[in-house]
Structures are given as structure tokens and as C-alpha cells.
Amino acid sequence: MARIISRSGALALVAVMAAVFGMASAATYNVGEPGGSWDLQTNYGDWVSSKRFHPGDQIVFKYSPQAHDVLEVSKADYESCNTGSPIATHNSGNDAITLTAPGTRYFICGFPNHCTATGGMKLQINVLPGATSLAPAGAPNANSPPPPPSSAATKAAATGFGLAFMLAAGLIMA
């Protein structure tokens, strides 16, 4: 015998599915990949130019903690490479930072002369308002080789859809 879901039950189901899809579509970006990492050789202006960051996305800084660190700083400290009053200091060598809200975030390396070096170890992230994206901008075209498995952005949209489907089926069957 078929069971009909009440209007309030249907609304609750839609809300749960929206939450699951929202969480599932966040991206994880490994700073500098695929060609680099948090180091003195990577051009972070070029790297960031092909990305679109949204609330819920994560950026991961991978580096040797004996050679680098990551300081989140104000715009003024970013522009002057001032390491004296960071907002946050990260030094694990594998720092995952969640972008929680729209706005601009600034990161520099706190080791002497790394921020001011030619090219500089400094990264400005513009977090765009609105829904999270399903794919980063600048995705490879048909003529580009596929990115390596640990590539710059990973998605869990298919997993989110599967979870939402199972949840919906469970609610309907209950």
C-alpha cells in the first residue's frame, strides 16, 4: 500500500536534501596544484586566476613546516608583507582552511623574505557570494590532460545525491 507524504513532511524532505546538496558541492583546492604547492616557485596569481571560491570550499596549504608556514593577515599586512599581527597562524605543513563567508582572505608565508621574494609567497582569495559551485572555473578542456587524482579540486556531488536519494527513499518507506 502506497503511503502519501504530508505537505510538512515533503517540505522537511526538501530542506534536508538542500542541506545535503549544499554540503556535497563544496570544493577542496590544494594551493598551487597541479604544478606546485606552497613554495617559492609557484605563481599564486596565475593559480588563483582560474578558480572560483565559494562559502564552504576549502583551501589546503601543503609544504615543509621547516621551510614555510601560512599566516592569514589583513589586507594592509598582505600588501606590506607584515608578519607581526596575523589573524591566524598555520604551521602543520598540511593546513586545511574552510572559506566560511563571502569576502577576501589574505595569506602570506611568515618566513623571512618569502613574502617579499620575486613573485612572493602570498595569496589573495576572493570568496564569491551565493551557492557553492559544482565545478571550479578554468576546468580542463577536451585538449588538456586530466588532472592527477589529488588534483586542485575534488567534488562529492555524486555522493551527496546518493545520500539524499537514500534519505528520501527511507522517509517515503517509513
Describe the structure.
- There is one protein chain.
- This protein is of the alpha+beta class and 174 residues long.
- Helix content is 27%, strand content 18%.
- Helix 1 packs antiparallel against helix 4.
- The longest helix is centred in the N-terminal third of the chain and has 18 residues, at 7-24.
- The relative contact order is 0.22.
Q: Approximately how much helix is present in the residues?
A: 25-40%
Query: Given the helix and strand composition, which structural class is it?
Result: alpha+beta
Strand content: 15-25%
As a whole number of angstroms, the C-alpha radius of gyration is 20 Å
**What general form does the structure show?**
globular
Listing every helix as H and every strand as E from the N terminus to the C terminus, the arrangement reads HEHEEHEEEEH
Please report the total strand number as a whole number. Answer: 7
- Unreliable spans are 10-23, 132-169
